[in-house]
From TrEMBL:
It catalyses: thymidine + ATP = dTMP + ADP + H(+). Keywords: ATP-binding, DNA synthesis, Kinase, Nucleotide-binding, Transferase. It comes from Cellulosimicrobium arenosum. GO terms for molecular function: ATP binding; thymidine kinase activity. PANTHER family: THYMIDINE KINASE (PTHR11441), THYMIDINE KINASE, CYTOSOLIC (PTHR11441:SF0). This is Thymidine kinase.
């Protein structure tokens, strides 16, 4: 029986890498898959991993109707890989669920659950509601303190911000003025990013090495 699976985690925990591996393994067994993504950091029509691998993908937009696109494709489809699924609409997630139930197509969706304010993205919320399984990635991304990172912070010059648009494409550790950093809940609640922690305590008094 086909499944709708949501692989979730913080930014930078290996979701896109897993998406590429999963596609590789299914394709190697002769299954036909389609890859979708939306607003990948590497640009449109892309699914990219920080490990360096990048493949062509179909870009999801507000106008995308998965049911129409997939059932109208040239050849039968066995599975879909859907990256950056947090950016999909609730209606698009419902189309994915329909493809699973009525067309017997496996859907493997990947995305972050919550935004920089700890609020669920619409696509992720609907996936949590509808998925057969929600899988939290095994590889843990870490807060600067060494604890498991569970939350995504948006930073402006290294300091956490709590106001702004929900969607701003960006990266962790990019050095850009607006960037992201993954934190444990304790430090997310206290808005204590690496830069703030470094400013508050001398490095020799910190129990975990801060990144350079
Ligand atoms: N130079 C590197 N060497 C080994 N692993 C790396 C390197 N750079 C990134 N990674 C791994 O890649 C992960 C990020 O993978 P990616 O698929 O891009 O994440 P996500 O899609 O969840 O944001 C990191 O958590 C880390 O495990
Ligand atoms: C927290 C948060 C993230 N984003 C963006 C930033 C990145 O472009 C993607 C996440 O990609 P990744 O492959 O999981 O690293 O989401 C955003 O737009 N708004 C946010 O609040």
């Amino acid at each position: 029986m086909a499944e709708l699976v949501f692989f979730s985690g913080t930014m930078d925990c290996g979701k896109s890498t897993l998406a590429l591996q999963l596609d590789h393994n299914h394709a190697a067994r002769g299954r036909r898959g389609l890859i979708f993504s939306r607003d990948d950091r590497a640009g449109t029509d892309r699914l990219s991993s920080r490990l360096g691998l990048e493949v062509l993908a179909r870009e999801v937009t507000d106008a995308t109707d998965f049911w129409v696109d997939v059932t109208g494709d040239d050849a039968p489809v066995d599975y879909l890989v859907c990256d950056e699924a947090q950016f999909y609409s609730a209606g698009q997630v419902e189309q994915l669920a329909r493809l699973v139930d009525e067309a017997e197509i496996d859907v493997f969706a990947f995305g972050i659950t919550a935004d920089f304010r700890t609020r669920l993205f619409p696509g992720s919320a609907r996936l949590i509601e509808l998925a057969d399984r929600v899988e939290v990635l095994q590889v843990q991304s870490l807060c600067w303190c060494g604890a498991r990172a569970t939350h995504n912070a948006r930073t402006l010059d290294g300091r956490m911000v709590v106001e702004g648009e929900q969607v701003v494409v960006g990266d962790v550790g990019s050095g850009a003025q607006v960037a992201y950093e993954v934190l444990c809940r304790r430090h997310h609640m206290r808005r204590m990013t690496t830069a703030v922690a470094r400013a508050l305590a001398p490095a020799d008094r910190l129990s975990f090495d801060l990144p350079g």
